[in-house]
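Reminder to self: tokens first, then the designed residues, so the page reads top to bottom the way the pipeline ran.
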């Protein structure tokens, strides 16, 4: 995929066969069995972003239909087109016609279907029933709880997990050698920490870093990803524990401005670092509770800096 001679790595390194899909062995095994039988039920892919849901759907289509996979696959992103008209018009028109080739059905892939309205999901339920002979649905979502029960009961559910560290390292090494990059060991660790098991995020960060420098360091990764170094966040917490509130406040403000962080970003990082502090477990629990309160207030529209200062001041009081 070329856009102004700039290759998007998430497409360039997208797996094309089942063996290339990393980190989802059980899910891949079941999908491969369906392809070998040239038959499959409606399926629901549920799991976090960037772990291979769309990739596996495309691999299934390519392995089933071979050269005619594009003609037999309708791919829709429900977060863009989430109304009932999409189901009634686009989906039904595609489902009505027979497939090209030996496989007796087409595939409709609905990405981010947890963004569909309840009315659209009800319409989709009837469409899934009426066109079972000519069409199979692959529904993809981050949260299966947002899909109505009648649709869930009509699907075989495939649950995807975030990629483990060793699986992510294989992907990083593959791209590193293919693109002639030099990545430090601590930079690889930083990539995994920043991505949180999201392969797409890793590829995007690596491409952004490579555009600046072929030698990728942890400092460059944290700057590109707009994430503070764990060490700096821990320093802020340690200053609050030592009751040096003014220094903690200045360090917090400097970190937010330096990395361009939002209130949500820094609270999420603070929450992670609390567990590594060498303090009483009861105090850790109280600090975690305050993180939740601060995040709720930010969701409600409170001022970020006031809430963050209130948060670290509460930490200082907890550890007095």
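Designed residues (320 positions):
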């Amino acid at each position: 995929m070329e856009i102004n001679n700039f290759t998007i790595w998430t497409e360039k390194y997208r797996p094309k066969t089942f063996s290339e899909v990393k980190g989802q062995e059980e899910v891949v095994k079941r999908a491969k069995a369906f392809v070998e039988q040239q038959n499959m039920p409606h399926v629901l892919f549920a799991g976090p972003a960037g772990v291979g849901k769309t990739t596996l759907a495309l691999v299934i289509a390519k392995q089933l239909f071979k050269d005619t996979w594009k003609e037999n696959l309708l791919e829709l992103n429900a977060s863009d087109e989430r109304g009932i008209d999409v189901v009634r018009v686009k989906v039904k028109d595609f489902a009505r016609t027979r497939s090209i080739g030996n496989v007796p059905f087409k595939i409709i892939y609905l990405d981010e279907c947890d963004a569909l309205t309840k009315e659209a999901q009800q319409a989709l339920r009837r469409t899934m029933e009426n066109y079972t002979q000519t069409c199979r649905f692959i529904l993809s979502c981050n949260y299966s709880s947002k899909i109505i029960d009648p649709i869930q009961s009509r699907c075989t559910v495939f649950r995807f997990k975030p990629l483990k560290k060793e699986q992510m390292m294989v992907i990083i090494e593959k791209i590193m050698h293919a693109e002639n990059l030099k990545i430090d060991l601590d930079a690889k660790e930083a990539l995994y920490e920043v991505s949180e098991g999201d392969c797409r995020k890793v590829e995007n960060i690596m491409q952004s870093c490579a555009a600046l420098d072929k030698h990728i360091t942890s400092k460059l990764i944290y700057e590109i990803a707009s994430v503070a170094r764990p060490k700096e966040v821990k320093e802020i917490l340690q200053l609050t524990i030592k009751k040096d509130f003014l220094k903690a406040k200045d360090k917090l403000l400097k970190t937010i401005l330096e990395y361009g962080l939002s209130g949500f970003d820094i609270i999420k990082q603070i929450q992670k670092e609390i567990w590594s502090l060498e303090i009483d477990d009861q105090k850790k629990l109280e600090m975690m509770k305050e993180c939740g309160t601060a995040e709720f207030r930010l969701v409600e529209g409170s001022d970020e800096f006031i809430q963050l200062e209130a948060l670290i001041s509460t930490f200082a009081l907890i550890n007095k």
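Residues 135 and 217 are 48 Å apart (CA to CA).
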